[in-house]
Amino acid sequence: MPNPSLLILAGDGIGPEVMAEVKRIIDWFGDKRDLTFDVSEDLVGGCAYDAHGVPLADATMAKAQEVDAVLLGAVGGPQYDNLDFSLKPERGLLRLRKEMDLFANLRPAQCFDALADFSSLKKDVVAGLDIMIVRELTSGVYFGEPRGIHTEDNMRVGINTQRYTEAEIERVARAAFDLARKRSNKVCSMEKANVMESGILWRDVVIEVHQADYADVELSHMYADNGAMQLVRAPKQFDVILTDNLFGDILSDCAAMLTGSLGMLPSASLGLPMANGRPKAMYEPVHGSAPDIAGQGKANPIACILSFAMALRYSFDEGAEADRLEAAIEKVLADGARTGDLMGPDGGTPLSTTQMGDVIIAALNASL
Ligand code: NAD
């Protein structure tokens, strides 16, 4: 069997800084766990624009289509703010998602006990929280036609269209049910079937898929507005939340903040299985390029490292090694390791990005 292949696109700002720590961890798994990846690297975002005049070169896109998984850092920066819309760094990211057809966006919200005080909610509401939001990523109101701004009766009218086909709902529902089976076997589907026809179809199709192939998974339904309330009232009632692009955008940001810092949040975007059975996949931290701290060694690498843990679990079926990596992170946090974003005003001296990588690798060594 050839080694699994990874394409690293570190990107801009703190992207290369946090990715440097991921690369050390990839090397660790090669050295210590006999889990060797064929790693290649390329450019995306502003750095790709600087080199090639576009935020993602065609050759890079072609490589992304061939590898088993893409690991992305972050893109963007103030120096690119005035570029034409089509050349902005974020367009590179969107092109990857669109051309790889990454329709299922997985956003975990997991509260490490050591950081429960960081949440804006009471500690007992969030301690031990472990939920996963599965957001449909390539359809819905952000893509539906007609769209635009036009004038009617001397007044401007803005239009966007919420549109879902049965097939689009079915494939993301299957992704959520499959995932639930690897977790606590519960899916809560959120839409607004009370006021939207697309919501009625969403609920119908989810029920059909469930009855046909996933009757063993516990399924419930909730209107998305109630879902938002429940997420801040009693988030631990959920395991997997399945929802559309628009509601998922909002609910996943809401859930993210339950856990404290942006520097802790990973994500995965998955598509259909490739010939080798692995899904098309891209893994990336939720945060951006953080220009305010870029180049200073202050960035928290944990979101990017947890994204690699998701790759181990969802692309490479290495759940036990993903558990090992997550446990190492939990251990260093419990021991008090903190980058600046995880410290209160009277917190003392924070660890640098590299020092956080050092202690995580030490915890991995201790796990052997
Ligand atoms: P951001 O996520 O880059 O930063 C928001 C705040 O969180 C900043 O104060 C930053 O210092 C802090 N932060 C973020 N990640 C951190 C980490 N790992 N460790 C410590 N602190 C961290 O969002 P922004 O400031 O709105 O955007 C900055 C740039 O990033 C913009 O160009 C934006 O378009 C781009 N962006 C890219 C992505 C992506 O690549 N997926 C996502 C969001 C924003």
Give a summary of the structure in a few sentences.
The chain is an alpha/beta fold. The chain has helices at residues 15-33, 46-52, 58-66, 89-99, 123-126, 166-181, 197-213, 224-233, 245-257, 302-314, 319-334, 353-366; strands at residues 5-11, 38-42, 69-74, 104-110, 130-136, 144-152, 155-161, 186-191, 218-223, 240-243, 266-273, 279-285. The protein has 12 helices and 12 strands.
How much helical structure, as a percent, in the residues? 40-55%
Nearest-angstrom radius of gyration? 21 Å
Number of distinct beta strands: 12
Q: Report the major sheet.
A: 10 strands, mixed
Encode the helix/strand succession as letters: EHEHHEHEHEEEHEHEHEHEEHHH
Strand order, sheet with most strands: 2-1-3-12-11-4-5-10-8-9
Which small-molecule species are bound to the chains here?
nicotinamide-adenine-dinucleotide
Spatial shape: globular
Descriptive key words:
single chain, ten-stranded mixed sheet, 368 residues, globular, alpha/beta, 12 strands, binds nicotinamide-adenine-dinucleotide, two-stranded antiparallel ribbon, 12 helices
Model description:
With 368 residues, this protein is an alpha/beta fold. It is 40% helix and 21% strand. The chain has 12 helices and 12 strands. The strands form 2 sheets. The protein has a 10-stranded mixed beta sheet, sandwiched between helices. A two-stranded antiparallel sheet has the order 6-7. α1 links the parallel β1 and β2. The longest helix has 19 residues. It starts with a strand and ends with a helix. 47% of the residues are buried. The mean pLDDT is 95. It binds nicotinamide-adenine-dinucleotide. The site of nicotinamide-adenine-dinucleotide has 22 residues, from α4.
